[in-house]
Write a structure and sequence with these properties.
The protein is an alpha+beta fold and 374 residues long. The protein contains 12 helices and 11 strands.
Length: 374
Amino acid sequence: MDHLIAAAAQFVPQGRVLGVREYGRGNVHDTFLVTVGRDQPTTSSDSPGEEHFILQRLNTRVFPRPELVMGNIRVFTEHARRRLELAPLSPGRRWEVPQVLLTPDGQDHWRSKDGSFWRALSFIAGAETFDTIQNQKHAREVGSALGRFHNLLSDLPPERLEDTLPGFHITPLYLGSYDEVLKKFGAPSSLEVDYCLKFIQERRNWAHVLENAKEQGKLRLRPIHGDPKVNNFLLDTLSGQAVSLIDLDTVKPGLVHYDIGDLLRSGGNPLGEETEDWERVRFDPEIGRAILKGYLALARDFLTENDYAYLYDAIRVITFELGLRFFTDYLEGNVYFKARHRDHNLSRALVQFKLAESIAAQADALRAIIREAR
């Protein structure tokens, strides 16, 4: 606990750290909620004499150049705030852009003696997250929130952002990594593993669809979030309106299709990503319809005809990609994603592959939904 308090104190120029506790369920970083005592509260949502912020220890194995991650976050937050100042939201709407907190000497991070990389972000009060879509309103809200996020960045040149994760959301590269890991480590024998092996083999051609379109000039790079799954959206606890999209470490240049597909994949699975009942996993097209309506209401201004043409592929490719990543990590010994037990990433892979099966089985219906949502 002392090392956590020491890290938190680096971002508290005034007042004192009252407490630090684990927060959230992230798969990559260690995240904590810090309570700070002040002589005077600085926001109306904090308790008298107290306020909060988010403290994180970044996983530098996943992000070997975390200073570039912080640079991207600052570019995004500054650009988004300027856009919101120029074009405020309609009355009654709230949208919060997380703020990077600085150390007394103006740094956006702090390295401890053991080399750990720490950063602090503002805490968005009066909001909550959910692991699964709760209802149609929730679905439409997260869709519109991703649309707002993309809209805010639609005029930001992607070259202003560093590629902090080379290869991230380049599905063919994940397929190549899988082939290498399988050759090196092999695969244990079980019905579940055999299902995954067969699934990947029969759908290898899925990996190249979006990247081929990019190479052909049909799709272009834009700023993306990189990980807009359902539990990265904050909803106002009273109104139920989406108020923020958090977890900005993967903001980088990319195809918006990976973002759109990831939200649809995550939101369209009512059982959630961590279910053990993987054989019952299915994609709910009505949730998908609500997400798309919310998204397209704010994204029509910048999407092209080619963008629409590849929306269905976006849903199936990103689902295949995530399952592939989980399964590869399982074969390699769970070195990337946090795992609660040896077969955790195998279970996660099974969920994604079963979801991809359901998406493919509903291809015609999903294409029709995309046409209607336009």
